[in-house]
Amino acid sequence: MDGPVYARPAISKIAEDLGPYKSTLYIGGSDGASDIGLLRAHGITTVVNCAVNLDINLVSGGVDEGDLRATGYGDIRYYKLGLIDGEGSPDTMMLGAYYILDGALRQAMPKRATYPFADGGNILVNCRSGRSRSVSLVALFLHKQQPDRYPTLDDAVADIREKRELRPDEWFETPKPSLYEAARRASEWIDLVEGRREA
């Protein structure tokens, strides 16, 4: 069951100067992720959708024909993760999500017609309302990428709650405990994968 919904911005700036292109990272919900004008206004060139139960068609000029859905390029690079809001996703999905977000920040596009995207730009991480799945992933990312600023996962979550305007009476589910635990476990695995500690 979803908790109460409070008014908050469609997207919220969370962190700046990330990755080789000095990108800004935002969190938002479906209303922000589907608003091309808003994305353009904030220099967002990439959307990382965390939600398994939310699809956004960002294809430009595609036409549905019968059972065939529109395909093609969009104005925005789009990555889809498919996390469940609560229990149900294997913890390894959060680990994969971390590396997808890291890859989206660092990816250098081939200079060919079939890759009509510029390198760099800002990134929006979204889920349905930008309160749990996206908060978990971005907290994990900031904790691992900026450990001097966010020495613990709790430090990153606290900062995101403030910047995303998440109210204290909803903190019990922002993020959901199972997603927070998945982020905590992914943090340990990242340390092993990247040689920061031994098994």
From TrEMBL:
SUPFAM superfamilies: (Phosphotyrosine protein) phosphatases II. PROSITE patterns: TYR_PHOSPHATASE_2. Residues 119-164 form the Tyrosine specific protein phosphatases domain. Gene3D superfamilies: Protein tyrosine phosphatase superfamily. This is Tyrosine specific protein phosphatases domain-containing protein. It comes from Peteryoungia aggregata LMG 23059. The lineage of its organism: Bacteria, Pseudomonadati, Pseudomonadota, Alphaproteobacteria, Hyphomicrobiales.
